Amino acid sequence: MKTKIIMIVSISKNGVIAGMGKGYLTPWPMRNDEESFKETVNGKLVVADEQVLRLLTHRKLLKNCKSLVLSLGKRTHLPQSVPVAESVEEVISYTEKTSQDIVVVGGMEVYQAFMPSVSKVCISRICGLVERSTDSVYFDEELHNSIRENFHEIFNDVMERDKQNPYPIAYSIYKRIN
After folding, report:
1. Direct distance between the N- and C-terminal alpha carbons of the chain, in angstroms, rounded to an integer
2. Interior angle at CA 13, CA 59 and CA 164, nearest 5
3. What sign has the CA pseudo-torsion 1, 45, 34, 142?
4. Mean pLDDT for back-to-back runs of 10 residues, the chain (178 residues)
5. How far is CA 53 from CA 16, 19, 58, 77, 158, in A?
6. 49: part of which helix (H) or strand (E)?
7. Four-point Cα dihedral 140, 52, 176, 144, nearest 10
8. Alpha carbon separation from 70 to 8, 25, 29, 132 (Å, rounded)
């Protein structure tokens, strides 16, 4: 069975990636976005860089799934109990043995490394501006272009704001064309 690779990204109206705003905290307390995230990663292998994995662990968003850090040659400061892979190929090899699907959740270098192998992209666009700082990370224009050229949209919905969600959220799912 071929491993499916899904990319999840949550970005603000001004392009800041969730968890990459000022102070590396999730800059929007969006209950619906977190619930959608948990549903997507349930039972799968979540792959992230060290910073994103720490954020997701802190927010308790990784229940019912395994996680792995893709280091891309960078030194990690995680406990030895956290598995670390050095390449995309190593991650895929690991999951083919366990028949698990992969969910790629960031940062930018991890998104870029996995993009050629991704079969589905889930994007949450938070319809609000996020406070930016010099350490904010933005969704790369090259990745936007790759999604436009290689994927087609199979789902689009907007959840209006409510008591638990201060901004509307536009959800889109894209499937690889080729």
Report:
1. 19
2. 45
3. negative
4. 85 72 49 74 89 76 83 74 88 84 90 95 82 66 90 91 79 92
5. 17, 10, 8, 12, 27
6. none
7. -10
8. 15, 20, 26, 26
